[in-house]
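ok so i was messing around last nite and threw this chain in just to see what happens. nothing serious, just curious
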Amino acid sequence: MPDRPTPTQHEPIEGFPAPTLEGGPGRSFQRFDRNNPNPYPASDYARRILWSFVYALLFRPTPNRLYAWRRWLLIRFGAKMGTQSKVRPKARIKHPWLLAMGEYATLDNNVEIYNLGPVTIGAHSCLSQDAYVCAGTHDHSDPAFALIRPPVTIGDGVWVAAGAFIGPNVRVGDNAIVGARAVVMKNVEAGTIVSGNPARLVRERDRSNNRESS
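result:
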């Protein structure tokens, strides 16, 4: 049986209508021509430009253990930081003024805090490398694809393992664990372990070893 020819870039694929390439919305429900191109106040755009320079020149090139310096920079841009919170130099924070971190909370290298809305990370919580916190989405029921900026809240004593995704408007309860590469789109109950895509309950976290220091 001869091989079927591969369609070229502009030829329709059998069973699928050809996409609209010129003029008009075609069959599209979402209409980017109706989207608000400037959803933020002008002052936010100015702060974002300034932060991008500060991040590139004064934040990212710093040694791993220079936590106090990076805390100071984040605070200057409006972040609320615990005195012992730790942010590694390759962590990426979209809007420092929408970030709050408790005492000893930690962001590892390559963590992405996409905080179009407020992100709060409780005391003693750790986000491992490549974790992604997404506090922003779009109204897919609106043809204008309006921007939505819901909060994300991560409680105290939480471990978000490597490469996990925390979606918009999610709350992760105290002492929960989110497994590596998990996709969390619903709230996580306190003291539980979840994993998978979508994230599902694995079991309760064993906290029997907890010993208060004397």
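not much to say yet. The mean pLDDT is 91.
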